Amino acid sequence: MKKPNTELLYQINEYGIKHHIPNVEIPEDIVQYYKEKYNIRTDVHKTCISCQIRQYEKYPDQKNFIIPCKFIPNGLPQGSKTMLNEIVKNTNVPIEQAKRFYYQLLIL
Prior knowledge:
Blueprint: E1 10-12, E2 18-20, H1 28-38, H2 46-58, H3 80-91, H4 95-107
Antiparallel strand pairs: 1-2
């Protein structure tokens, strides 16, 4: 399989510096290529998939993904809806803010 073009994972800022876009939509052919070649984890958030791809682009001879990382879960664990409703009820914050807070609790 030919290496796909991954330029869409990057952008050039106002200073001319190319940097990674962490939360970009990644085409399936790119994900498939890196899954087959490097066995990246795809059961995680798209930010983690993008980060793994960027790591292998930067260090293509790596045998394993060497950055210690817990990865961002692809979804909330079972029972999260109840917990989120409780957070919203007790703190009077919008559901989106409660989700961000809950995600932070999960990855710490």
